[in-house]
Amino acid sequence: MKILSEKTYQIFWFLIPVILFFCFRDSDSTISINIHDMYFVIAYFHLGIFVSSIFAFIGFIYWVLLSFNRKTNKWMTMIHTILTIGGILLITFSNSIFENGTYISTHDHSYFDSVITANFVIAMSVIIVVFGQLFLCINCLIGILKKEK
């Protein structure tokens, strides 16, 4: 609990090599998202690089606040960390949860139902992650504007 509230940058920086390991291991896997009759196909490699750079930036923000002796709100830090990491895990593993790996005939609607469900889970996960970043912005403003005792 103490590392989550005081050394949050270590959590985000520790997750960077873990994410990169999984993205290199599954580099040929893809996530396909259907939005308005268009498929967006994203490779796990590109998703892992993007998420790692975001985690590096978030860890840098927390590290700068700590190095300038600015205290952030512990509850907002915990909420931000849980929403961000939980949302990224949902995005990463939602495609493998709903995909059974078999090709189904076009007359079978259960395959399309699972694609719709996976797209819904991915969309809600993105909303969760973006909502979590609002907590980061507010928490940084509180840390910057709060007067030292």
Oligomer: single chain
Task: Give the overall silhouette.
Answer: elongated
Q: Report helical residue fraction.
A: over 70%
Provide the spatial order of strands within the biggest beta sheet.
Answer: 1-2
Which structural class best describes the helix and strand composition? mainly alpha
| Count of alpha and pi helical runs | 5
Major pleated sheet: 2 strands, antiparallel
Number of domains: 1
The rounded distance between the terminal residues' Cα atoms is: 24 Å
**What value does the Rg take, in angstroms?**
18 Å
Helix and strand element order: HHEEHHH
Task: Give the DSSP E fraction (strand runs of 2 or more residues).
Answer: 5-15%
How many strands? 2
Mean pLDDT: 79
**Unreliable residue runs:** 100-105
Quickly list its features:
149 residues, two-stranded antiparallel ribbon, mainly alpha, 8% strand, elongated, 72% helix
Layout: helices, strands, pairs:
Blueprint: H1 2-6, H2 8-25, E1 30-35, E2 38-43, H3 44-67, H4 74-98, H5 110-145
Antiparallel strand pairs: 1-2
How would you describe the overall organization of this protein?
By secondary structure, this protein is mostly helical. It has one domain. The protein is about 70% helix and about 10% strand.
